What we know:
By secondary structure, this protein is of the alpha/beta class. Helix content is 34%, strand content 24%. It contains 10 helices and 9 strands. It has helices at 58-62, 66-72, 118-133, 148-159, 180-190, 194-198, 202-206, 228-232, 234-244, 260-278, and strands spanning 2-9, 12-20, 27-34, 43-49, 75-79, 136-146, 164-170, 217-222, 248-253. Strands 1-2-3-5-4-6-7-8-9 form a 9-stranded mixed beta sheet, sandwiched between helices. Strand 1 and strand 2 (12-20) form a beta hairpin. It is globular. It starts with a strand and ends with a helix.
Amino acid sequence: MELTSQHKCFNGTQSFYKHESTSTGLSMTFSVYQPPQAKHKKVPVLFYLAGLTCTEETFMIKGGAQRYAAEHGIMLVTMDTSPRRTGIKGAAESWDFGHGAGFYIDATQQPWATHFRMESYVVHELRNIIIANFPALADRIGVFGHSMGGHGALTLALKHPDIYKSVSAFAPITAPSHCPWGQKAFSNYLGSDHAEWAKHDASALMRTRKTPFPQGILIDQGLDDEFLDTELLPHHFESACWTAEQPLTLRRHSGYDHNYYFISTFMQDHIAFHAGILNK
């Protein structure tokens, strides 16, 4: 693990790293914000999963989260959204698939299966790196994300409730099996079997659960989001939560769209939501 840059931020430390990943078989990058409390004790950890085209820098630069993480004593971790420089033909041709669009799943179809193993990377490898090298509380970990990363946050939390104690999302892709972004990714990464797709679809997963997060799930969605009715489909997840008796706070905001101006507006609420669970 190599430290590539480090900066003081709200009396904490914002750092960027790169390392050779055993999950993807390639070099990966991630970033960590350690709040001032981490100088004296171990603190809870909140993983952020970014959306299409983003890197490990996007959230840390644009999200405005460090101020609130410092107030609540929460460590923030985010990572690149896929392996890069894979050498796979066509991996860099589309902004919504391939490089920058790993969808936080482990691909099963070649040529993607060799390197596109983002679920294993996030859930296991990177989490273990954070626990081993930073003052992180291993039993107090939450996850949140935006768009593709919101999909990742919801699905990883539902598949690994023993790891993630809290979950929230900004404008998540909630039913990827039913939207063009998800269908493009899943057909290439997972093949044509829709039963395999359902294993990585937040709405489908929720319908098979029973109150998986009794302390609730928080989602914020802008009503002027250009992807709302074609790609995000929050009503699917809302219905699934009703079936699963899962407490859900789905806030719909007039005038807000899909970008980081929207995300940063409600970041304080999300950090406080996770802190209320992780700091107990």
